[in-house]
Design brief:
single chain; 53% helix; globular; mainly alpha; 124 residues; 5 helices
């Protein structure tokens, strides 16, 4: 849950890097909350209004964490545009599964060295 909240707190941060754990934990909790919204919409009979509001609310954080994940493997965030090409989402899925670059790169320090409780304090 801390990863989901971390991504939401940094909702428009397209710089830096996101580890696989950060990305996939955000994706997991995002899917769980989306399913919960669908269930609540179904119970209330609101025609997916709550679901649509939730998905709009997490649109920018989802793109931001995806771009930071691409940075973590040494790719530019422009690769995210492959999602709009047929079968490009599969390439992005493969990129999301790749391990982090082992050292710091041009996009920032290795995510394992970030203190997620206090991002201003970097630990060695």
């Amino acid at each position: 849950m801390k990863w989901f909240l971390y991504v939401l707190k940094h909702y428009a941060t397209f710089t830096g890097r996101a580890s696989r754990t950060e990305f996939w934990m955000f994706a997991l909790f995002n899917a769980l909350f989306a399913i919960a919204c669908l269930i609540i919409d179904n119970i209330l009979g609101t025609e997916r209004i709550l679901y649509a509001v939730y998905m709009l609310a997490v649109l920018v954080p989802s793109i931001a964490v995806s771009v930071r994940r691409l940075h973590d493997i040494g790719r530019t965030g422009w690769w995210y545009l492959l999602n709009f090409v047929p079968f490009g989402a599969f390439v992005i899925l493969v990129f999301d599964c790749l391990p982090s670059e082992p050292a710091d790169n041009q996009y920032g320090i290795h995510p394992d060295y970030i203190n997620y409780n206090n991002p201003q304090k970097q630990s060695a």
